[in-house]
């Protein structure tokens, strides 16, 4: 039984950071024990770069790595043998740290495309876990579409990743970061059903930490229930500016732990030495 928590990135201009970029992931991994691999959506990293990620993290650290956009958005899961092979080879040094490969699909990927997803999942190697994020409204509002996707994912032992933006869209934005997110983030109904023993949740709060905490209350209870059921969830905490995301992720872990006393605490973060003039 373990709860992993993390953020959308491992470095941010507002976070305390070591002097050298090579140490930033190691420092982040002392705050949180999971991270979203969003950068892999834009380009497959060099294998040596991935090896450096592995060297900075414990084998229990979780990377949830997004498949490249050429696979999911440009070719829409069809004729993707070469870019997929290149991606799988690049991330091999992570070993068990590659917790799940994240298949984020565009909003235009509809129930009519689910057979394509099923064929794609059926061709993937069993050496990895897979998790799918969809953004077409029908998957959240139409029972037949929901059932079709759930059956397809279950057949492949794949998880469905919800991106909960409901708390964010409760009231209008109040900052530049919130206004930017207001135009870019998906507005989808809440989904909180786990299909596997390792559910993954993405939660978007507000720049006001108190409102972020207020909005995640239901996820604290859901996550605690999953842990009692023997599942090992991973929860990623986002805010529009992400300035306090690591602290918030740790707070979420603490709130769940207060309800599940057998859950181990996160380790103490590595202190960052203050910058000096000389």
TrEMBL record:
It comes from Micromonospora lupini str. Lupac 08. Coiled coil: none annotated. This is DUF72 domain-containing protein. InterPro entries: DUF72, UPF0759_sf.
């Amino acid at each position: 039984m373990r709860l992993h928590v993390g953020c959308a990135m491992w470095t941010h201009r507002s976070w305390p950071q070591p002097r050298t970029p090579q140490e930033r992931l190691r420092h982040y991994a002392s705050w949180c024990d999971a991270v979203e691999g969003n950068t892999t959506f834009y380009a497959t990293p060099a294998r040596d770069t991935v090896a450096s990620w592995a060297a900075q993290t414990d084998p229990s650290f979780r990377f949830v790595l997004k498949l490249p956009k050429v696979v999911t958005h440009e070719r829409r899961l069809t004729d993707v043998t070469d870019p997929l092979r290149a991606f799988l080879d690049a991330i091999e040094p992570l070993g068990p740290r590659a917790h799940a490969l994240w298949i984020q699909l565009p909003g235009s990927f509809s129930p009519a495309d689910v057979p394509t997803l099923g064929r794609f999942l059926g061709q993937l190697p069993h050496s990895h876990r897979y998790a799918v994020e969809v953004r077409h409204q029908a998957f959240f509002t139409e029972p037949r579409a929901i059932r079709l996707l759930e059956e397809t994912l279950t057949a492949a032992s794949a998880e469905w990743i919800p991106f909960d933006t409901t708390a964010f869209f409760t009231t209008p934005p109040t900052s530049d970061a919130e206004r930017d997110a207001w135009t870019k983030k998906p507005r989808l109904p809440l989904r909180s059903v786990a299909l596997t023993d390792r559910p993954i949740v993405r939660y978007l709060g507000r720049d006001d930490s108190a409102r972020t905490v207020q909005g995640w209350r239901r996820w604290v209870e859901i996550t605690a229930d999953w842990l009692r059921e023997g599942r090992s969830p991973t929860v990623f905490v986002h805010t529009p500016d992400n300035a306090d995301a690591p602290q918030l992720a740790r707070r979420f872990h603490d709130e769940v732990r207060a309800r599940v006393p057998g859950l181990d605490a996160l380790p103490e973060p590595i202190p960052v030495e203050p910058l000096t003039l000389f």
